[in-house]
Amino acid sequence: MSEPHETAPTAAGDPGAAGDPSTGSDQPELKKAITPKLLLLFIVGDILGTGVYSLTGKVAGEVGGAGWLPILIAFAVAMVSALSYVEMVTKYPQAAGAALYVHKAFGIHFLTFMVTFAVLSSGITSASTSAIFLAENVLKAFSLEEPLGDAAGMVTTTIALAFLVLVALINLRGVSESVKANVVLTFIELSGLALVIIVGFFAIGEGKADLSRVVLFETQDEKGMFMAIIGATALAFFSMVGFEDSVNMAEETVDPVKNFPRALITGLSITGVIYVLISILAVAVVPIGQLTESTTPLLEVVKEGAPAIPIDTIFAFISIFAVANTVLINMMMASRLLYGMAKQAVLPGFLRGVLKGRRTPWAGIVFSTVLAVALVLSVRYVLAEDTIAALGGTTALLLLTVFGLVNISVLVLRKDKVDVRHFRTPTALAVIGAITSFALVSPIAQPTQNYVIAGGLLLVGLALYVITWFYNSAVRARRTRFRHPDDLGRD
To answer: Please, are residues 334 and 124 in contact by the beta-carbon 8 Å criterion?
Structure first.
């Protein structure tokens, strides 16, 4: 890991220079209230959640008991890209994230728009994944699967859609998630994972686990080892995403140059260790076939490892809390990005709508909720049998593409000298990050359905962009471009 790097002042006239009105840098600075410990907990809480709770069995289904290997590879890929994010966030500590970095590197407004909409879309796919998993845990918590029979699938969908609408109503009221509230939810998530780990070790101590399954490699459809691992890694990557959201906290972090690298690397490492440990314990305690077929794999671990202790219902409720925050945060992010792009006139003006009393972006909230509802219905009943795997894989596909572009942006922006001390990732790691990210979005790693879902969402964004471009050109006689790309992450 490189040390913070000192560079020369920005060249005069550079659009990213301090004080340039085009960047909106004359706005008041945000209060730096996030300490290193709070930042670490925020990062851990953002990464933990739906991925490990829902996809542990899916990954095992791709490679068998060696499901820990794709998770380990996904962790390595995420870490390399995380280091590139660290360089960017300490070099440009604004709240816009990947969109700003790509814009500074290439200056192509349409590319900036597509990156922003890809991030937005990943939030919607992630929220939709979490909503469905939450609904499945509701059925488990109240033991409704068997009584409902064939109607369980329809009830699950209804609960997921109802929860998305509930989140929209909460957002309309103006919920502002603080970092301290996130700490509480993080401990709830950690308590569920700690319970799985304790039960797993208890089962091993009682002789109820079979550790030989951990090195058992099995593939579906007669896939070769390499192809199976690549596909499973792309799916497992969904468990690692979330760290990129922390860049939006840079302006509010105490001494980000010093604290951000440590917090991000430590937080990602903690979650990586937890994920690998859980993947090993899960296949040791639960037969691979049973783990793969279950919609709530970690609940199976708890039930198998400690059958005499009635904690499965408690764990189901913990799972609900663990993923509920994921839905809320992602839908809040999507609505704010829609509002931000509409405010900069790269999306239709109706998306700028704000409730007068609550001052919440109602148009963005409604539009993103409609997209999420349509996504759940189309994926669940038209495109894919396994909705969670399809939506989780699509989230990874979208973000891996963005990560690849961020890694390239790091290399391009090495020529941009700024007058602040910042972290510098080794050039070789940025190159590796770009190559591995794009390799994991290739057809050998991603099923066709993921391209269809991601493409459909991006086509929605493209259509909105074209409508806005036509209106700007024909009516307002102005170009469609971002005026202040570094303000995209602001509310």
So the answer is: yes
56-110 pLDDT, tens digit per residue, is: 888 988 898 999 999 999 999 999 999 999 999 888 877 668 888 999 999 999 9
CB 360 within 8 A of CB 354: yes
Quick one: average pLDDT of 22-33? 48
Residue 9 is predicted with a pLDDT of 36
Asked, for residue 17, whether it belongs to a domain, the answer is: no
CATH number of the domain encompassing residue 391 = 1.20.1740.10
User: In the prediction, which pLDDT does 484 show?
Assistant: 77
CB contact at 8 A, 393 and 235: yes
Contacts (Cβ under 8 Å, ≥6 apart) of 410: 84, 87, 88, 101, 425, 430
- Nearest in space to 407 (alpha carbons), one of 450, 438, 386: 438
Q: Is residue 179 part of a domain?
A: yes
Residue 33's pLDDT is 64
The whole-angstrom separation of Cα 283 and Cα 214 is: 6
Token output for 162? 């109802």
Question: How many C-beta atoms lie closer than 10 Å to residue 350's C-beta?
Answer: 10
Phi, psi (rounded to 5 degrees) for 422: -145, 160
Nearest one of 433, 410, 411 to 77, comparing CA atoms: 433
Report how far residue 3's alpha carbon sits from residue 72's, in angstroms, rounded to the nearest whole number: 25
| Kind plus residue range of the DSSP H or E element containing 99 | helix 98-106
Distance CA 73, CA 239 (A): 12
- At 253, give phi and psi (nearest 5°): -95, 135
Segment 365-376, tens digit of pLDDT: 999 999 999 999
Asked if residue 70 is part of any domain, the answer here is: yes
Check residue 6 and give its pLDDT.
42
